[in-house]
Amino acid sequence: MQQLIVTATLEGISPLTWGGHVTEPKKNGEPHDAYEERTWQKRAHIDANGHAYLISLAIKNCLDTVAQHLSESVPGAGSSKYTKHFARGVQSFQPLIITDLKNKPLTLKDLSKYTMFVPAEGKRGGGTRVVRNYPTAMEWRTKIELLVMDRKINADLVKRYLGEAGMFIGLGSFRAENRGIHGRFKVIEFASVMHED
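Request: output the structure for the sequence above.
Response:
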């Protein structure tokens, strides 16, 4: 069975922010601000080598969402949309290692503190707001690898959808998809090859 393997380098055109859940408990009597200052870096994903990353599902979900957003019909397939083909036929297995613009992996010390006044419950429109700090890469790149199993999806389509995803969906917390200003990217390198399984 032939499968398409796509590799691409994405470069941020707005900062990338992590918003992982912090499980560390507060110390006795610790004020909220002190807790945030002590634990904000724990919101980032850091691998065993100390490198910042996004989980592989980040780019998978980004593409699925842009396919749904564009809602384009598959040529010659009636009312069938590409949405289901991307959802079932495209997969990413490798974590997205986040680097600087010289392709050096970022570590915790490279991430800035981005402070926001957000709903305490984490839901838009919540009544109570608190200050929270988020690890953020101001300039960033990442390399991705996608396995495309659906034959209705070709390399040109993936490249175009990645471009659309970078503008209208984004990656990480506060991304464009959620009416945020972070996580937008452009595609600076793209390659594809057919693989015989």
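The domain at 2-196 is CATH 3.30.70 (Alpha-Beta Plaits).
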